[in-house]
Write a structure and sequence with these properties.
Blueprint (H helix, E strand, L loop, with lengths): L3 E7 L2 E7 L5 H8 L18 E4 L2 E4 L12 E3 L12 H8 L9 H14 L5 H7 L10 H14 L2
Parallel strand pairs: 1-5
Antiparallel strand pairs: 1-2, 3-4, 3-5
Amino acid sequence: MSKRSVRIVVNGRRHEVVAAPETPLLTVLRNELELNSPRFGCGLGRCGACTVHVNGAAVLSCTIPVADAVDAEITTLEGLGRDGDFHPLQHAFLNEQAAQCGYCIPGIIMTAAALLATTPRPSEAEVRAALAGNLCRCGTHVRILRAIARVVEATP
């Protein structure tokens, strides 16, 4: 793997990193940019812990080569809120105490945020379907659903 300079935009800021083009975006986000929210879970795109937004769509960053993210708008949980404030989902997850260990929560919030961006008032079935690729072993599923429902209910 030969490394080269790659320019990516993460959370609204341009970054130039040196990486092999096939390096997973997750590795660059965590190791080069020192972002903590995208988590390594399975490395196979089956758990959702590494979910970020690429051009507004929820994607599994462990499955995308960094070369495929050049010129894309990448958003992690750190960049989800605006003007120094949490995103409504982040507030709702805190208010509902939707995290136990919290390992899966960044990926779940990013998946839910992408859903709400395209479907502002999803049904519970649509929420469950969107979250089907995000694993949570702590069993806070009911609180996670309540947190998302709280945001949906507050949507005009």
